[in-house]
Specification:
The chain has one domain. Helices cover 5% and strands 34% of the residues. The chain has helices at residues 106-112, 174-177, 253-256; strands spanning 9-21, 26-39, 74-75, 82-91, 116-124, 128-129, 149-150, 161-162, 169-170, 180-181, 196-197, 201-215, 218-227, 269-277. Strands 1, 2, 3, 4, 5, 12, 13 and 14 form an eight-stranded antiparallel beta sheet that branches. Strands 6-11 form a two-stranded antiparallel sheet. A hairpin with a 4-residue loop joins strand 1 (9-21) and strand 2. The protein is elongated and about 85 Å long. The termini are far apart.
């Protein structure tokens, strides 16, 4: 168990929301958040078993230096600089009272008219992550593995590409891996905790639905839903967060799947449903 009252955090953010309805049947709500969350630890340690150092966040959530907690003060594990979310519905312009096919008779109007197209979208920045030296390297203390140095590196240098020599998907080129090194004994990393950013996340869900009136008190609703309509892929933690490991930066499913970490979003899925209400 851990009892600790020495951690601290700050959060600043700009939150905006826009809602609008139009006469043509379009209704939408969009929100955007620009924020920064910084802390020394991203989970409450009270009565919590300390996470193991082999996990993606375990070591970075333990104090690197008990006498200087500011060494851990960095973007939170869950910090997302930009977050956009939008939801909308649109009544398709077909059928009685609409611009297209307004003079259809009753039967055809009940089939063609009244369809509604809906959507939900999320676009987020990548979250922070930390990279380490060898599992046996403890240059600053004997408790927490040392965060790696990185010369000439930028927080957004991680880009998914296929390594031509291994044919695996990876965040780093061999030249970028060569920029990492182990700090000298007694020294702390020159980049520190959660300096780097993983790939961003985006998803679009769509739906097409219509409610058919059978008679008073009875309705039949037909709905087609498409999850991850653009089949976008979300890559998360690599196979290893140690720059000396052969899987460092690799995000290929064949090598990462056994590690138990989240690799990607769900693939595109379609679902057709009918619901009878009475």
């Amino acid at each position: 168990m851990v009892l600790d009252s020495h951690d601290f955090s700050t959060y600043n953010g700009l939150q905006t929301v826009v809602r609008r309805s139009f006469e043509n049947g379009l209704t939408f709500q969009a929100s955007y958040v620009w924020s920064k969350s910084i802390d020394t630890r991203s989970f409450d340690p009270t009565f919590t078993v300390v996470a193991v150092q082999s996990s993606p966040w375990g070591a970075s959530s333990s104090p690197f230096d008990n006498d200087n907690r500011k060494r851990n003060y960095a973007p939170s594990d869950f910090d997302l600089t930009h977050v956009f979310q939008g939801i909308w519905t649109y009544e398709l312009p077909f059928g009685r009272g609409k611009p297209i096919a307004a003079n259809l008779n009753g039967i055809f109007d009940r089939i063609v008219g009244g369809w509604e197209l809906g959507g939900f979208a999320i676009i987020e920045s990548g979250r922070p992550t930390t990279f380490y030296s060898n599992s046996s390297d403890y240059t600053l203390s004997s408790i927490v593995r040392t965060v790696a140095d990185c010369s000439g590196c930028s927080p957004n240098m991680l880009h998914i590409h296929r390594d031509p020599s291994t044919t695996l998907l990876t965040y780093f080129t061999p030249a970028q891996i060569a920029q990492f090194s182990t700090p000298a004994p007694g020294q702390f990393s020159n980049v520190g905790r959660n300096y780097f950013r993983l790939a961003g996340y985006s998803i679009l869900n769509l739906s097409l639905a219509k409610k058919f009136r059978i008679k008073e008190g009875q309705d039949l609703e037909a709905r087609f839903e498409l999850h991850n309509a653009l089949n976008s892929t979300h890559y998360d933690e690599p196979g290893s967060n140690r720059y000396t490991n052969g899987d460092f930066g690799v995000v290929d499913p064949l090598t990462v799947e056994q590690d138990g970490r989240s690799l990607s979003s769900d693939f595109r899925q379609g679902q057709l449903s009918l619901r009878y209400t009475f």
